[in-house]
Amino acid sequence: MKIGIDGRVLERNITGVGRYLINILNEIPNYSHEHEFYVITNRKQNHITDSLYKFVAVNFPLINLKIFTPFWLNKVLPNILDEYKIDLIIGPNILVPWTKKCKAKKISIVHDIMPITHPQFFPREYVYFLKFYLPKSIKHSDKIMTISEASKKSIQKIFNLPSEKITVVYNTSAKNFRQLNSEEKKLLKAKTNLDLPEKFLLYVGVLEKRKNIRLLIKVSDELFNRGYDIKIVLAGKAGFGFDEFKNDLLKRKERLIWLTQVDDSTLLYLYNSALCLIFPSYVEGFGLPPLEAMSCGLPVVASNCEALLEVVGDAGFLCEPDDVECFVNGIEKLINDESFYINLKLNSIKRAGYFSSNLAVEKFLEVVNSFY
User: Fold this and answer.
1) Separation CA 31–CA 303 (nearest Å)
2) Is the pLDDT score of 80 beyond 70?
3) Is 177 domain-assigned?
């Protein structure tokens, strides 16, 4: 079977959607060589290089990415699928072609539908875009993959779909995220060249309204008021709603260290050096940073939103998203109770094993092979 993958998410800065695709595609060569895979992009990408994959770069002159997307899906992509006689097309970023011209079977990977269920956390134009185009993709998808039972529940409810049409293929942590020994950590520290304190708290992700950054600011203040001289490192770029808390963040730069450029080596060092990960999101489709942190043996203090309950489970310390005291008490317990800290560390590594790349790629290929 010839399988096409809309790989445009690999052309730009890699976020959660791109990382999910990379993790899956990097594992497939270890499991399957019975299909031909075509990674189709508009510009050349360099994240996937395995010889199992054939690469098609169209180089069509781009206009605004969002405006270009319907044209790409329904004009450019169907021509490529027809030319290469593709049997199955996978859309890793929610949308698939909905034109009758596209004869291939379709799998849409819908990571979440948060812009529809929680529009207050997203730019208005993106909410409108998704509300208009997502129902078309859902309708024309033969099968849908999503990344958590929480997301599946939302998709089923909003689009009134049968359970069997949606398969959960969990997100997975890249294999480089692991617990380092002291020598590896020392070498990585020299490579990253970061001047960080011996003990610090960590947040990883976009600095946006949905991620509840205001709570991190309040946690920093409360820890300071309780006499703890401990900094919080925030690793991520500014996102939607950043201006609402920007000044409060910058006013505390002696306690809140903001890193905007963080590669995987730096992230690996941070996960292996922090006291814990703080992740207070109001809503998530999955929650990849907590999984990456747990893979490195880093305790997680997070909100108890539905997806994080599913990912972190009882391996972390969970709180209501706006309960500052709960977050601070959890951090304080990690600082002062060594047995609690060690127990959470061990449980984190064990919990991360439930989301192995082996299980994810096997489930992914099971869905693909159902068309074979």
Assistant:
1) 36
2) yes
3) no
Query: Are 93 and 205 members of one domain?
Result: no
Cα distance between residue 335 and residue 329, in whole Å: 10
Q: Which amino acid is at 152?
A: K
Do residues 199 and 294 both lie within one domain?
yes
Distances (CA, A) of 30 to 34, 52, 101, 170, 358: 12, 10, 34, 18, 9
- Residue 161 falls inside a structural domain: yes
Specify the CATH number for the domain of residue 219: 3.40.50.2000
Distance CA 139, CA 195 (A): 51
208-240 pLDDT tens trace: 999 999 999 999 999 999 999 999 999 999 999
Examine the pLDDT at 65 and tell me if it is beyond 70. no
Contact 156, 346 (CB under 8 A): no
Q: What is the residue-wise DSSP string for 268-293?
A: HHHHHHSSEEEE--S--SS-HHHHHH
Co-location of 283 and 243 in the same domain? yes
Same domain, 208 and 317: yes
Instruction: Kindly state the average pLDDT of the residues 139-164.
Output: 96
